[in-house]
Amino acid sequence: MLPVSIVITTHDQCDLLRRHLPVFLEQDYGGDVEVVVVDMNSTDDTKTYLEQMVGRTPNLRVIPTPESARNISPTRLALTLGFRAATHDWVIVTQADCCPSSSRWLSCMIESGKDVKTQMVLGYTRFVDGKGWNGLRCRFFRAWQQLLHLEWARNHRAYRCDGTNLCYRRSYFLEHKGFADETNLLMGATDIMVNRNSTQRNTSVCLKPDAVMLQTAPTSPCWWSEERMFFMETRHHFAHTFAYRLRYMLAVWQIWLPTLLALLGIAFGIVSDMWPIIVASALAWPLVVGVSCYRFSRRLRAIGEAPIRLALPLLMHLIPLWDFTAWLNWLFTKRQTFLKKYI
Asked: Domain span at residue 116?
């Protein structure tokens, strides 16, 4: 197996590091593995814990980020330091609140990039421990979007990625000068990098259940609106967007078109006093929507996601509303909000 470096970024996440870091260090992998933790100026016990771990773990290194960096956002700075500190060509980037779903996670990701032409491998991440309505919608919407853009990346150049489970060649990162574009954007570092540098031949996708990354679900509803709003800014810096955006709209209309046709059929039947049309429309709608939900649920089960049963039709119909709300929030937010604050 090829040697690989795992880069984990963290900030004030000591408790999560205690839970997740040993899982990265204990991967069942037949090659050399090093773990590089980039500490973004944590103020909790992160530094003390990492010093203890370095003392008894030879393949663990800790890289602190300087406080005086002015021309690059904290996330881009941390990832750049991680890539430059890595000693192996294959680098997997993730975060401290993430944990591999299996001891074979690393093997599956690297096996997907064994082709010499492959420069990046896009993996799947799912939320865990989410509770209530906020946890449900976060888990669903992330799964829906990831399945869409990962399946797109299989046959086209990638549109975006999930920065918590991304395998990327260090040499390719340095060749394209890392995050040379939009360095002061607070979010979207890996999304923009993959969007700009992906081609149809150099990108691989790994959807094996053992390669899934687990991430602690956000507990605050504010995270949802902020994440969606910041992505609206990020996508304005993407290249080759038309084809994927068209595919995205078609996916949304595949959900909404049967509903609109059913409503129009029922309305026409009532006005025309034609009860057969009303009955046919009322019976056809749950059948078509049920087929869409069934197909989506099968795709979730194939990658180890827990099924979303009764709430799935409602969640699928709320996608356009969530996108429109995020767009409105982005439209009426000052552009400086999305940029690093210089001191």
From this structure: 4-139+157-220
